[in-house]
Specification:
Oligomer: single chain
Order of helices and strands: EHEEEHEEEHHHHEEEEHHHHHH
Number of helices: 12
Helix content: 25-40%
Radius of gyration: 20 Å
Structural class: alpha+beta
Strand content: 5-15%
Mean pLDDT: 92
């Protein structure tokens, strides 16, 4: 949930006005007030806020991501800064989640106005919240899908899943690039042969963070959280730092300057060094970037894109310390 754009006239591919009656019905069934009800921009859900709570209601993708998020939230420590769950449920194919509303604004929207000291301290707070999330006993919980409806890929299957994309492309039109991807992936296998031992966020960007009065006050949107390693969330975070406009709602994208995010990786590492500690971090992040994009890679058989990342590096490697 972006948590920035609100208004009385919802827009976008889904007409959120058609969802408002269901939101009001959920609130009424829980004995909650609809005072101040307003739409909040969100990609995969119809999200609404009142003066007291936030309601998210499924509109696209498989059912179950919001009930999964409620299950993850149930075992999180307070240090993870996730809002209190009021209720969750499922009506037919549409699951929903109600959480307490944390007063504040999206961190990515506040970022341009923040001082350098505020940015650094807030990044430290985020790193500590992520470390708390990573330490939660939730590794057994698996969401129904990832970005673009892609099924969850187990860490042990990363290389095989990516190699399958290259082999499918080769079956349609054999090229040297297809063979090079498969050979190169074999050389990466030893870099990611460890076990998934933390509960990772999976969509760690500043748009999922709430900020108020100089401090991080919330980390939300755990609908795709699942077991991985501590550095798994680093790929998403660094991708946002390299291209913050692509990770921001349209209303704030033009206010963002990538140069103001350049120190975020080091600040995050200072507070959570274990997330950057693996000696093969750069190779691991290359694999992670491709797995994050697995839905597009499978759909479009983008072998050249895969080869570029594997041989030349990610779009955010320049942000890593030497």
């Amino acid at each position: 949930m972006a948590g920035v754009v609100t208004g009385d006239a919802p827009h976008g591919e889904h007409d959120h006005a058609t969802t408002e009656p269901a939101i009001r019905e959920i609130l009424a069934s829980l004995g909650l007030s609809a005072s101040g009800l307003r739409w909040i921009e969100s990609y995969s859900h119809s999200a609404w806020a009142t003066d007291d709570v936030v309601v998210r209601y499924r509109i696209i993708g498989p059912t179950g991501r919001l009930t999964h998020e409620a299950s993850v939230a149930a075992v999180l420590p307070p240090e993870a800064l996730y809002p209190t769950v009021v209720a969750s449920g499922c009506w037919g194919h549409d699951d929903w989640l109600v959480t307490e509303r944390i007063p504040g604004e999206s961190l990515i929207g506040a970022w341009p106005r923040m001082s350098v000291d505020e940015r650094e301290s807030t990044t430290h707070e985020l790193a500590r919240a992520v470390q708390a999330l990573h330490g939660s006993p939730a590794q057994h919980l698996i969401p129904p899908c990832l970005f673009g409806g892609a099924p969850v890929v187990a860490r042990s299957d990363f290389v095989a899943t990516l190699a399958d994309v290259a082999r499918r492309a080769s079956a349609e039109r054999p090229t040297d690039a297809c063979e090079r991807v498969v050979r190169t992936l074999d050389q990466y296998a030893d870099a990611i042969d460890d076990d998934a031992d933390v509960m990772a966020h999976h969509d760690l960007e500043f748009g999922q963070c709430l900020w108020r009065d100089g401090h991080l006050v919330g980390v939300v949107d755990l609908e795709m959280a699942h077991a991985n390693t501590a550095d798994w969330d680093v790929a998403r975070l660094l991708g946002m730092c390299a291209d913050p406009k692509s990770a921001a709602p349209a209303a704030v994208a033009d206010t963002l300057d990538a140069d103001t995010f350049a120190d975020v990786p080091q600040w995050f590492q200072d507070a959570y060094p274990a997330a950057f500690a693996h000696p093969s971090l750069r190779r691991r992040l290359r694999i992670y970037e491709l797995v994050y994009a697995i839905a597009d890679l499978r759909r479009n058989l983008e072998v050249d894109r895969m080869l570029t990342v594997l041989e030349r590096g990610t779009r955010f490697e320049h942000l890593l310390a030497d």
